[in-house]
Structures are given as structure tokens and as C-alpha cells.
Amino acid sequence: MDVTLREVRDGDLPVFYAHMNEPEGTRMAAFTAKDPSDRARFGAHWARIRRDPAVMVRTVVGEDGEIVGHLGVFGPPGEREVTYWIGRDYWGRGAATAALRELLGVVPDRPLHARAAADNGGSIRVLEKCGFVATRTERGFANARGEEIDEVILTLSD
């Protein structure tokens, strides 16, 4: 799937909100806000990250101009992480891989890290296709599942 990245616009946020409240997407992401349906908290979160100069966040736009999802980079030098959320309608179509490759082409920071629930094979495959390597696992509380689960930490070194 061909995608492009652009600055986040106010009109993108309702689509992001819908993506982040889709039950299967939330379950797969696992490490979500305690209550993803809290619109006020969602709005405050997006306002904060959009004004933080250390965070680069982009909207993923599909071939027909549809909003496919979002992705970004955050964190201090040496510990920067990538994150992404692709709407469920676009899973398995190459959108996440294409978007992440495009982002990596404009973000020179290395190393970069990423995290995925250990049972989220799709996300792990996307990261590996883009050169990330699993470096360790951690265990943490996943709000979306209401329990501790394993999380894979992946690193892109070059």
C-alpha cells in the first residue's frame, strides 16, 4: 500500500480517536491509556505531544487521501522510540511497513527503539522488516487487557 506522511491536522484527531477505541486494535496495542474512550484525556494528550518539539508525529495518509493512522518518534537522545497506530481496516496491507520506512528515511536518530506486546506478531513483523531487532523482553501492566503481559523491545542501530 502506498502511503504518505504529513503534519497532524485537527481534523485527523477524530479518526485517531476512533482507531484507538476499536476493540481489537486496542487489545493488540495492549499498553494504552487506562480509559481510551476519555475524550478530554485524549484531547489533552494530543495537544501536549503536538506542541512538544522533541516529539515528531505524523498522519499516515493512504492512496485515496484517507487517514490510515499515525506514527511518531519521541524520547531523549539515545532512548528515542517509534510508535504507530494503523486503523484496523488497513492491517495486513503493508501500510504500517510503508509508513515506518518513510519515517525512518527522515529521522536520522539512531539507535531507535520500539515496543510491542509479545503476542502482537503483526507489529513485530513490521518492525523487523524495517530493520529493528528484538533485544529484550519486559513484563508490564497492559491497561487494555487488565493484566501484566510480556512486551518485546526492539532496536534499530543503523
Molecular structure report:
- The structure is a single chain.
- The chain is an alpha+beta fold and 158 residues long.
- The chain has helices at 13-19, 23-29, 39-51, 95-106, 121-129, and strands at residues 4-7, 56-61, 67-74, 81-86, 112-117, 133-142, 147-156.
- β3 and β4 form a beta hairpin.
- The protein starts with a strand and ends with a strand.
Q: Strand count, sense and closure of the main sheet?
A: 4 strands, antiparallel
| Widest β-sheet, arrangement of strands | 1-2-3-4
What is the ordering of alpha helices and beta strands? Answer: EHHHEEEHEHEE
Distance between the termini: 25 Å
What structural class should be given to the helix and strand makeup? alpha+beta
Mean pLDDT: 96
Discrete helix count: 5
Label the overall shape: globular
Helix content: 25-40%
Layout of SSEs?
Layout: E1 4-7, H1 13-19, H2 23-29, H3 39-51, E2 56-61, E3 67-74, E4 81-86, H4 95-106, E5 112-117, H5 121-129, E6 133-142, E7 147-156
Antiparallel strand pairs: 1-2, 2-3, 3-4, 5-7, 6-7
What structural keywords apply?
four-stranded antiparallel sheet; 7 strands; three-stranded antiparallel sheet; 158 residues; globular; single chain; alpha+beta
